[in-house]
Design goal:
Shape of chain B: globular
Largest sheet of chain B: 5 strands, parallel
Oligomer: heterodimer
Largest sheet of chain A: none
Shape of chain A: elongated
CATH class of the largest domain in chain B: Alpha Beta
CATH architecture of the largest domain in chain B: 3-Layer(aba) Sandwich
Helix content of chain A: over 70%
Structural class of chain A: mainly alpha
Number of helices of chain B: 6
CATH superfamily of the largest domain in chain B: P-loop containing nucleotide triphosphate hydrolases
Radius of gyration of chain B: 17 Å
Order of helices and strands of chain B: EEEHEEHEHHHEHEE
Distance between the termini of chain A: 26 Å
Largest interface: A-B, 28 and 31 residues
Strand content of chain B: 25-35%
């Protein structure tokens, strides 16, 4: 019997390898993020002070929507080819394997988004002093988003054309992340401390780590039936 | 080698509104091959999915060695190799990689064991190619190698010989025969009977009512 850690490592390794063999799926959400954030300066006005005011909202709405694009792929392929069934019947804890899948999803969707956010921030006229705060808040916020996405994606895998339903389920639940994430970004831009909203994001992440894998496993079991 | 026993007791299974299995009972023990047959839609797949625990029976129970399979499902699943209707393989990975990850999460396997299993299902020639480029029959062979590698006493196979040629059909019969001779139990849903010794075979016919 494979140990829990090795099993999780194999799940993550397989997902990373698959993602690098099929890069388009990886790049689409990132391109979407880049395009949306560059459209705003074109549509509003190139005036730096004005852009700076809307930057937190723009960054976070773009990050949220592009995460949503990525969440759709979280379980879809594995559900279609029967890999999820094999996970459910592997003798390992399904909760744990899905947690590993969520980690690899964050590595492939959330982390690149956090790393790209300085570029988007620069395009919105954000001062460089705010960059560390923005990267940290997006990185933390996307962890919580991936965990939330695991639950809603698990619920919708059995449904054909579940994309719209997935958005309807995920977006309302992601509102707190949007509020506190944008708040952290705004405070980073203003140069005041971001600790407050970051604590809230961290609290949601901890709650997500505790409950989301359990809920995702239950959702996947229902969807597999 | 411990003897195993799998029993189903008056199973009632619904798929949506449809009452698919109506009070079905069965039993199989080490050294037996249970062949499930029936027309399309007779409930073969539903029965197999109930046996592995993916589908919950409305009433009745499935027991492995006298214990309800849902009592300790992880211990049960560790002793079970399931091959569904579709071969659970990733198109962008080679056969070897697929087995490395697929079997690896169940039990540690090394490259030599994977090579050996691929040889047994006559899949060595295309073991390095991305599974995407293989034919459906070749993919089925790779999936069967995965069943072999699971080293589980209980095999539950949904149309294992689908897409396979005549040689492949005989191969599946041979693999099943070997599994039951070494104390395993094999349950398979089939349309064409597998070439397994009559003495070891028990049949379960499902009918559409």
């Amino acid at each position: 019997m494979t140990g829990a850690w090795s099993a999780a490592r194999l799940v993550v390794e397989r997902d990373l390898r698959l993602a690098f063999r099929n890069r388009a799926q990886l790049l689409h959400p990132l391109l979407f993020f880049a395009i949306v954030t560059t459209l705003f300066p074109l549509a509003l006005s190139p005036e730096a002070s004005r852009l700076r005011d809307v930057a937190p909202g723009v960054l976070w709405v773009a990050a949220l929507l592009s995460s949503l694009l990525a969440i759709e792929f979280l379980f879809r392929d594995d559900a279609q080819d029967g890999t999820l069934e094999q996970y459910a019947l592997s003798g390992q804890s399904l909760t744990w394997l899905l947690f590993a899948k969520t980690v690899s999803h964050w590595l492939l969707a959330g982390l690149p988004l956090a790393l790209m956010s300085p570029v988007a921030a620069y395009g919105l006229g954000v001062p460089t002093s705010a960059v560390p705060g923005i990267v940290a808040s997006v990185a933390l916020g996307t962890v919580a988003l991936s965990l939330l996405g695991a639950v809603t994606a698990g619920l919708t895998i059995g449904i054909r054309r579940g994309g719209a339903l997935l958005s309807l389920l995920t977006l309302p639940l992601a509102v707190p992340l949007l509020i506190f994430g944008a708040q952290a970004t705004a405070r980073a831009i203003a140069g005041s401390g971001i600790a407050g909203p970051m604590y809230f994001l961290a609290a949601f992440t901890v709650l997500g780590i505790t409950l989301a894998p359990l809920a995702a496993a239950a959702a996947v079991r229902i969807s597999l039936e | 080698m411990s003897a195993h026993r799998l029993t189903g007791d008056t199973l009632h299974v619904f798929r949506g509104e449809r009452h698919v299995l109506r009070g079905l009972s069965f039993a199989a023990e080490s050294g037996q091959y249970l062949e499930v047959s029936g027309a399309n839609g007779a409930g073969k797949t539903s029965l197999l999915r109930t046996i592995v625990g993916l589908v919950q029976a409305e009433s009745g129970s499935v027991e492995w060695n006298g214990r309800n399979i849902h009592a300790d499902s992880r211990a049960y699943h560790a002793q079970l190799a399931w091959l569904g209707h579709d071969s659970p393989l990733k198109g962008d990975l080679s056969a070897i990689e697929n087995l490395h990850y697929g079997t690896g999460i169940r039990r540690p396997v090394d490259a030599a064991a994977i090579d050996l299993a691929l040889e047994e299902v006559d899949a060595s020639r295309f073991a390095d190619r991305p599974v995407r480029t293989l034919s459906a029959g070749q993919r089925r062979r790779v999936a069967l190698a995965g069943v072999l590698l699971a080293a589980a006493p209980l095999w539950v196979l949904d149309e294992p010989a689908t897409h396979l040629d005549a040689a492949g059909h005989a191969l599946v019969g041979h693999l099943v025969e070997r599994r039951i001779e070494t104390g395993g139990i094999v349950i398979a849903a089939v349309h064409a009977p597998l070439p397994v010794q009559e003495a070891h075979t028990r049949r379960l016919g499902l009918s559409t009512k």
